Amino acid sequence: MNHPAPPASVGRVALPAALLEALRDLYGDRLSVAEAVRAHHGRDESAFDPHLPDAVVFAERTHEIARTLALCAQHQIPVIPYGVGSSLEGHVLAVRGGISIDLSRMNRIVSIDADDLIATVEPGVTRKQLNDALRGTGLFFPIDPGADASLGGMCATRASGTNAVRYGSMRENVLGLEVALADGRVIRTGTRARKSSAGYDLTRLFVGSEGTLGVISEVTVRLHPLPEAVSAARCTFGGMVDAVNAVIQTIQLGVPIARAEFVDALAARSLNQYSHLTLKEAPQLFFEFHGSEASVAEQAKVVEQIVADHGGEQFEWATQPEDRSRLWNARHHAYFAMLQLKPGSRAITTDVCVPISRLAECIAGTEIDIAASDLPCPIVGHVGDGNFHVAILVDPNRPEEFDEAERLNALIVRRALALGGTCTGEHGVGLHKIGFMREEHGEDALDVMRAIKHALDPSNLLNPGKMFTPERTPS
Amino acid sequence: MNHPAPPASVGRVALPAALLEALRDLYGDRLSVAEAVRAHHGRDESAFDPHLPDAVVFAERTHEIARTLALCAQHQIPVIPYGVGSSLEGHVLAVRGGISIDLSRMNRIVSIDADDLIATVEPGVTRKQLNDALRGTGLFFPIDPGADASLGGMCATRASGTNAVRYGSMRENVLGLEVALADGRVIRTGTRARKSSAGYDLTRLFVGSEGTLGVISEVTVRLHPLPEAVSAARCTFGGMVDAVNAVIQTIQLGVPIARAEFVDALAARSLNQYSHLTLKEAPQLFFEFHGSEASVAEQAKVVEQIVADHGGEQFEWATQPEDRSRLWNARHHAYFAMLQLKPGSRAITTDVCVPISRLAECIAGTEIDIAASDLPCPIVGHVGDGNFHVAILVDPNRPEEFDEAERLNALIVRRALALGGTCTGEHGVGLHKIGFMREEHGEDALDVMRAIKHALDPSNLLNPGKMFTPERTPS
After folding, report:
1. Can you give the three-state secondary structure of chain A, one letter per residue?
2. Where in chain A is the domain with CATH 3.30.465.10?
3. Mutate which of A154, A177, A197, A354 to test chain B, going by most B C-beta atoms within 10 A?
4. Which tens digits make up the pLDDT trace of B62-108?
5. A116: nearest CB among B213, B357, B468
6. Which of A353, A355, A409 shows the shortest CA–CA distance to A381?
7. Which residue intervals of chain B bear CATH 3.40.462.10?
8. B198 touching A, CB under 8 A?
9. Residue B149 belongs to what H/E stretch?
10. Is residue B75 helix, strand or coil?
């Protein structure tokens, strides 16, 4: 037994034969109803039970997405966009069945415009693929959620990751989108200019909309010049709170650090085991500095002093590119490394983000909660943003462990909300945070979201069952 | 005669006595129907004919705004939020009459949270007032549209200004809002955390919504550490295109300049006359560099070399704070200075913004257009963003000059759109850019905006007649 998502029967209707026939005409052998293909598209990296779509189509062009949406609207069948399936919150599960649109074959780099620091890509292009294509241009795309996610999916969840403290999240780095609407029309949002005041910010509306307002069929992102100099360092601390306070002070002083990642003792052990490192198994920070040679040296000097002031052990520099790569690769594999702490486990991952001044308090409280639990709970965090993750490791065969994990998750989320934070800094709501949306936003703000959803998807066919309950909770 | 806005009679209905009575109960002597007060609230800095509201209320608390909206919804009467009236696009004109809600008395600083680099203010707080309140905290609020605009108004138009090249616009710097909706409910958007993936980005939806989706009753903004070092410089060029190319190269190299302002020869003359300066009357750039001492020196060195490569005359440094202030104050008064080039004139101001690589081409084309016109057309621009303004000076008693100005405006906007840009980089749509929204976004994307508008303001009472036509243009 796995973690139960909403019952599969709710609102699920059989796929009309006419729709299947029309889709087969459109896609030929790029349509699949095979169990294995549907199973692959009915799960993600979350601990939820899979919910299989009724069919999967592999789109190669925007007009196919548009036609699929129009057909599904006509037959009142749900549509769920699918990138690489790296979501941690159940985003791609077909809880009401329907058609999964796999966008992984829409993986062309449409254009790289180095003069304007812009790239336009199809939604199935992954972040690593984009950065590979940028080699030699002197530019890079900084948003880095760890997984080699698709750009479309990263838009959908408003992803961020390790570099966001300096470069922002997808919110700041998407310049424009092409989006197929629920009725099959296709719009473009934004322009290629850096800023605009021409009407509602549709780009920002679709970024973070988790496939519930339209299917993103093209993405234009901002690129950044590769820094002239990069250096990385790590340092350990006697306790989590000391480490976090060092980061807080760094942020408050305005040091333009590129990365500030927290790893607790248990997470450090997992990285050692999984990536064959020799990290000290203690709370620690990984820093990265970007800039000119002078600026990097200056930043490092300031941070080294701050770290010393908080009892951190002396910096260990990763000066060679290979050393840096090894460090960050290990950090990127943290999720899978942590799972290996409890072989066969799945993770319920928290994703709270709080104002930086409350981060130490938030982590200290979390530390007490998890110390009192029997479940292993390694912690990693993009602490420069006030964002951290607890991977609560559960045995999928023990339902009581899911209950315990959800109890811990709720404690952690409610503490973050009480401190002025959010239930999800970067993973999105999906299925897993729906229950906290009312507490975070209030029912009236949720009503505004519902009104927008209804205006753009009146039949609730776009990734239904995600993000918020369709009706107001009776008070 | 002045520049005609849409006919005042369109859709205008008489104010019901019951509404006026209810508002008088609520506001007492903070309600005015005096001609002078209404006239003051029926115009802005644009060249449009005034359109007077039927009454003006001076709100002091959110609940008053909310009650006003509920009453106006009940009586189906328009509501127009009013900050300081510094709009350049006719935003506050009561083209369908109704109630102007003056927010200038809601000018309390609610909180300054230096540890989180956040301030919360009422919507009538102006940017200078906020920066005065920040003195001694080591922080500042960088968004600077020139005018001492209210933060509520700056949210409504998605303002930016001279510092946006480094610090972003209101889009990037608003963390959360309190908004009173059309039916009188009050919501909060965003949290105090730096990032969130919890649902639709309502903050970014209301930022730039020009009072058409709700009335902003509180604003939480990001603050930035005052730079350790600041230096400013200016330099002149043989031609506009050389100056612009110097900025393009600076941006493409990723130099983190804080300001890069273009002033053409005619605008320089206006600044000399208005602010008693001795600028060379030639195309020129004003730069400002922020950072550590070393970083500022490094940036300046790079830019100085780029300027020299483009035939710029040697930098003149404004090293003393007083010199810098004088320079930037003059720049901030440019609008009024330019008006004085033609005493008694009004300005039709363009606000296009294009991808940085197309800026030289855009300005060169614009230069040819205005050289062929009889109207004086000084140019200033936030060229680091690809954004520039032509102030087309017209004699308000000569309708043919308005026609000529609009002809030029249309040429300039259409060129910018053809180059991948936007009709408005920072001033907003208001009344003046409505005609270009279809060309910029396409009718289907406009339909999405209309659907959102209808969902949140079904009776079209919130600042009606602005931003886009309520119905699709028949094709």
Report:
1. CCECCCCCCCCCCCCCHHHHHHHHHHHHHHEECCHHHHHHHCCCCCCECCCCCCEEEECCCHHHHHHHHHHHHHHCCCEEEECCCCCCCCCCCCCCCCEEEECCCCCCEEEEEHHHCEEEECCCCEHHHHHHHCCCCCEECCCECCCCCEHHHHHHHCCCECCHHHHCCHHHHEEEEEEECCCCCEEEECCCCCCCCCCCCHHHHHCCCCCCCCEEEEEEEECEECCCEEEEEEEECCCHHHHHHHHHHHHHCCCCCCEEEEECHHHHHHHHHHHCCCCCCCCEEEEEEEECHHHHHHHHHHHHHHHHHCCCCCCEEECCHHHHHHHHHHHHCHHHHHHCCCCCCEEEECECECCHHHHHHHHHHHHHHHHCCCCCCCEEEEHHHCEEEEEEEECCCCHHHHHHHHHHHHHHHHHHHHCCCECECCCCCCCCCHHHHHHHHCHHHHHHHHHHHHHHCCCCCECCCCCCCCCCCCC
2. 1-226
3. A197
4. 999 999 999 999 999 999 999 999 999 999 999 999 999 999 999 99
5. B357
6. A353
7. 229-418
8. yes
9. none
10. helix
Distance from CA of B134 to the nearest CA of A (A): 15
Q: Which residues contact B410 (CB under 8 A, 6 or more apart)?
A: none
- pLDDT digits 0-9 by tens, A132-160: 999 999 999 999 998 999 999 999 999 99
* Residue-wise pLDDT tens digits, A175-223: 999 999 999 999 999 999 999 999 999 999 999 999 999 999 999 999 9
Please give the pLDDT value at position B404.
97
User: What SS3 class is residue B407?
Assistant: helix
* Alpha carbon B333 to its chain's center: 15
Query: pLDDT tens digits, residue range A354-391?
Result: 999 999 999 999 999 999 999 999 999 999 999 999 99
Over residues B1-45, the pLDDT tens digits come to: 356 555 555 667 789 999 999 999 999 999 999 999 999 999 999
The answer to whether B171 contacts A427, with C-beta atoms less than 8 Å apart, is: no
Q: Residue A1 has what pLDDT?
A: 36
CATH 1.10.10.10 assigned to domain B109-225? The reply is no
Which superfamily, per CATH, for A229-418?
FAD-linked oxidases, C-terminal domain (3.40.462.10)
* Per CATH, domain A1-226 is 3.40.50.300: no
Q: What ipTM was assigned to the predicted interfaces of this complex? A: 0.96
Confidence at residue B10, expressed as pLDDT on a 0 to 100 scale: 61
Report the pLDDT value the prediction gives residue A351, as an integer from 0 to 100. 97
Q: Is A201 on the interface with B (CB under 8 A)?
A: yes
